[in-house]
Amino acid sequence: MGNPAFSLGFETAAGQHDMTQSVLVTGGAGYVGSHACKALAGAGYRPVVYDNLSRGHREAVRWGPLVEGDLHDSPGLAAALRAHKITAVMHFAALAYVGESMTDPETYYRNNVGGTLALLAAMREAEVARIVFSSTCAIYGVPDRVPIVETTAKAPLNPYGETKLAIERALRWYGEAYGLRSVSLRYFNAAGADPEGEIGEDHQPETHLIPLVLEAALGNRAQIDVFGTDYATPDGTAIRDFIHVQDLAEAHVKALDRLLGGGLSLTLNLGTGVGHTVREVIAAAERITGHRIPRREGPRRPGDPPVLVADASRAREVLGWTPGLSDLDTIIKTAWAWHTRKKA
């Protein structure tokens, strides 16, 4: 198991099954992180959220304590890991706007890579040896084949994707040298909201297609911008693989179970294998909401791949994970229920 000189530090946390295991969830006040906390609590874990609330929401922390802190604060992190008797970490805390990463790469490298290195240092200090990492399909860039498998060439088109790939690679070397075990989960397009309506997607600014479409349906946005109508797709618009956020959350819990049960490190795609065009998403939203959605068609955005669809068969095989809520209608219905309640 890696380098025995450090395995002393990275071996102790797994065997504590006699009590509720506490999991540190960095970025647990954010969109996917908060849904993961709910899934963790439902599976019998105790999620402890570590978040600086710069982009997350205090009201989304409902299933365990909140530790307000910054990722770069290794001593504070190590203290939180010890105080809450953490057995594993789920790491969501990251800046995640592609456009912003293009104009401000320094902040993305400092936050996403630098912050993660500080987290890993704190984990070594506190002898916590398991981490589930929130990665992204942005590491693939424009794929040379679709659907995308885990071994597809990595060629990120933006600093956001580059930082996530850098962290995946660091995790691999930390495993070799220090015995850290990790699962990196590369999501495709996270979408939808908690079916019970407790939490949902609330970014400022919002850049994701489905919430933008629903804001236009509610009249809170003048129109939806369609970037590119000349792709080699059935209707000329880009194709994406949308995955319900609760399905993502459940995959994180299964990955954690596997690590705590002694499983080795691995990397998995999380998607449905089914793609939808931008026009299909707009049409489905019009049908479900009963509102016309005004749109403005424009040129392609630089760096937008025409088609991003996952081959997630490995996650099915290894984790026994099957998305149950990720058909487009369920995604839009749960998001619409959340958005209409939020705006009420």
Keywords:
single chain, 344 residues, alpha/beta, seven-stranded parallel beta sheet, three-stranded mixed beta sheet, disordered N terminus
Number of distinct beta strands: 14
Q: What integer is the average pLDDT?
A: 92
Helicity range: 25-40%
Q: Helix segment count?
A: 11
Quote the beta fraction.
15-25%
N-to-C series of helices and strands: HEHEEHEHHEHEEHEEEHEEHEEHH
* Coarse morphology: globular
**What is the rounded Rg?**
20 Å
Low-pLDDT residue spans: 1-18
Tell me about the largest β-sheet.
7 strands, parallel
Terminal residue distance: 54 Å
Structural class: alpha/beta
Strand order of the largest sheet: 3-2-1-4-5-6-11
Task: Describe the secondary structure blueprint for this structure.
Elements: H1 4-7, E1 22-26, H2 31-42, E2 46-51, E3 66-68, H3 74-83, E4 86-91, H4 98-103, H5 105-126, E5 130-136, H6 159-178, E6 181-187, E7 189-191, H7 209-217, E8 224-227, E9 239-240, E10 242-244, H8 245-260, E11 266-270, E12 276-277, H9 278-289, E13 295-298, E14 307-308, H10 313-319, H11 328-343
Parallel strand pairs: 1-2, 1-4, 2-3, 4-5, 5-6, 6-11, 7-10, 8-13, 9-14
Antiparallel strand pairs: 9-12
